[in-house]
Design brief:
globular; 7-stranded mixed β-sheet; 311 residues; 11 helices
Length: 311
């Protein structure tokens, strides 16, 4: 497959466009998140420019609006356009109400009905996506490890991990960060759906949304790793520490978060990677990211590959 990560539009750094990553071959398209209607428009143009594609797989990594706001408009367009087979993959929390009930404050929340209401309220964007898919008669599929998404595969989180997150999210007596530390990942982000894909050159890519590194496994098996939460420094450092040799990996950041201080952002990470002499990460702040990366020959026939680390 080929990889295309959409980028900022018209130099606008004030709008939180959020994530949208496309993986495609001759007949199918995987859309990993669609955080803004501007992304929806880009996906429409992509599909109209590739009329041989008839299968569209949409993965919603987690509930945050900067990963979901363009999904329902895209589903509506795919339905009205016709001719597409469409599948939607995301967590389906209501199927695990009993498991979540047992995890909330030692099982003190007794009503299954009240738990369902709490889950629907907490994960409202996912609810809207599933309801829209079902209304349009598209299939909504549980995003469980081992689930095939075209030629890609969901590799995390586990049922136990995302039900842990759901339990913490609806229990207002506990903190909203994994592990209780405000420096950790929020529960809303932590259990983002992780997707493994193989590019046409054989490289393995891991997409992780805003996942906590605690739930990311087998990192050394990937050639290209998305750094979670738009390049949040603490998460990236945990991934570097977990890898046998970070210098052998290509890192990718989807940073369309705008200039807000609380919206993730990769500026601190870029400074850290320069200081540690890591190769620069591919970053949508610099424009659309396309993989496999085409190598360009210089005037003396030298192949110019990844950017050099600053010393």
């Amino acid at each position: 497959m080929r990889f295309k990560a959409l980028s900022h539009y018209d130099g606008d750094t004030d709008t939180r466009f959020g994530d949208c990553i496309l993986l495609h071959d001759g007949r199918s398209l995987v859309v990993y998140d669609c955080g803004h209607e501007r992304h929806t428009e880009e996906v429409k143009r992509f599909l109209l420019a590739h009329p041989a594609i008839s299968q569209v797989h949409i993965v919603v990594s987690h509930n945050d609006s900067d990963h979901t706001d363009g999904v329902c408009p895209l589903l509506e367009w795919l339905s009205s356009e016709g001719g597409y087979n469409v599948w939607v993959y995301t967590h389906q929390y209501l199927k695990y109400t009993d498991d979540i009930l047992k995890k909330v404050a030692g099982g003190r929340r007794k009503s299954q009905e009240s738990m369902n209401e709490a889950l629907l309220a907490e994960f409202d964007n996912i609810r809207a996506v599933i309801e829209t898919a079902e209304k349009l008669e598209f299939e909504a599929i549980e995003a469980l490890p081992g689930t095939k998404v075209g030629t890609c595969e969901i590799v995390g989180p586990t049922i136990d991990e995302f039900t842990d997150v759901a339990a913490q999210a609806v229990d207002n007596r506990v903190g909203d960060h994994i592990g209780g530390s405000k420096e950790g990942e929020t529960v809303m982000n932590a259990a983002s759906v992780q997707l493994k894909c193989t590019l046409e050159n054989g490289e393995h890519v891991l997409l992780c949304g805003d996942a906590t590194p605690l739930y990311m496994n087998d990192l050394d098996t990937y050639d290209i790793i998305q750094l979670p939460h738009h390049g949040q420094l603490q998460s990236a450092q945990a991934i570097f520490d977990d890898l046998w040799d970070p210098d052998t990996k290509t890192f990718f950041i989807s940073d369309n978060t705008g200039s807000g201080k609380t919206s993730g952002g990769s500026d601190k990470l870029k400074t850290f990677m320069d200081k540690e002499c890591y190769s620069k990460a591919l970053n949508t702040q610099n424009g659309v990211v396309i993989l496999p990366k085409e190598k360009v020959r210089g005037s003396r026939g030298v192949i110019l590959g990844a950017l050099d680390c600053k010393h």
